[in-house]
Amino acid sequence: MHYAIKEDTCLIFDFDDTLVSSSAMVHVYRASGETLRLTSHEFAKFKPLDTDIMDFSMFEIFPPDVQAAAAFKHFLDALNTVPNSTYVVSARSNPTPIKAALKSLGANISNSRIYAVGDANPQNKRQVVATILEKLPNCNMLHVFEDNMNNIQAIHTAAKDHGIRYSFDHINH
Questions:
Q1: Class for the domain spanning 9-21+65-170
Q2: Predicted TM-score of the model (pTM)
Q3: 41 near 173, Cβ under 8 Å?
């Protein structure tokens, strides 16, 4: 951990493989008839074929076999210290199962602090974080917990664009 939580700190947490782990899989249907089943971590590195059809339906429901992951303790600390500056930004498109999963693990976060981007494109996470930063004029430090380096780099751009100091924890699997 490379940060100290202060009143001027804004914290962004990724959801899958950062706050929670689960048995959710992306199903990839190939034109050949083959079906691939990928974890979210595997999917982040996956290069689809143009003819592949992706099924993310397991990421639109309460995460199966959900468990607290590497950054969860830091998340609870952040909620207790700076609840109004703690956010979850996820590639998932539905925030309801995110909130339910966090609540089932003992973390209660306001719906307005959960952003379901609905896309794995790092630039979309960057844009959401930029929107969050615009709402927090007293934020002078952004700290991110994220498992995807592309997202970490994109979010860093949002911090630089807003003149905000930046640090991160890269969550490894």
A1: alpha beta
A2: 0.93
A3: yes
